Amino acid sequence: MRRGRSLSARIAQEEFFDYQPTSTVDLPDPQPLVENLTRCVIEVLAGARELEQIARWVTDDVYRTLLKRQTISARARAARGTPAIRPAFALGGVRLCEPRDGVIEAVVVVNSRARSRAVAIRLEGLDRRWRASAIHVL
């Protein structure tokens, strides 16, 4: 009775079809993506933008996390009886650092009338483009 492929063959196939890391020199400037992702994430949490619009720029884990936060925000707005509106904000300083090749960690300050927030984003070069592997709104 044959049991299928060997363990090493399955691992090799998973590594081949999984996301392939890309070097920073083969990727575009990350700053515009960081700024646009920050704007989009703030608007998604405010209910003014659909999460699917940024799905191609984030990993599956980030997508699931943002979906949970979007749901919580929508429930809070419904409980208060306030509609979803596009928030008024301005981006402040943007800090980028490269802890290793193919990885960018960024912090963006977001200023609104009520308060200032920080958005931390980790970009990884995967399949010849930047993808956000972590996004935290502080």
Question: What does this protein structure show overall?
Answer:
It is a single chain. By secondary structure, the protein is of the alpha+beta class. Helix content is about 35%, strand content about 30%. The protein contains three helices and four strands. A four-stranded antiparallel beta sheet has the order 1-2-3-4. β1 and β2 form a beta hairpin. The longest helix has 21 residues. It is globular and about 55 Å long.
TL;DR of this structure?
The chain has 138 residues and is of the alpha+beta class.
Number of DSSP-assigned strands: 4
- The average pLDDT value, as a whole number, equals 90
Query: What's the helix count?
Result: 3
Strands of the widest sheet, in order across it, are 1-2-3-4
Secondary-structure element sequence?
Answer: HHHEEEE
Which secondary-structure class do the elements indicate? alpha+beta
pLDDT < 50 runs, ≥5 residues: none
Biggest pleated sheet: 4 strands, antiparallel
Distance from N terminus to C terminus (CA atoms, Å) equals: 56 Å
What share of residues is helical?
25-40%
Q: What percent of residues are in strands?
A: 25-35%
Rg, Å, rounded: 18 Å
Question: Which overall shape is indicated by the principal axes computed on the Cα atoms?
Answer: globular
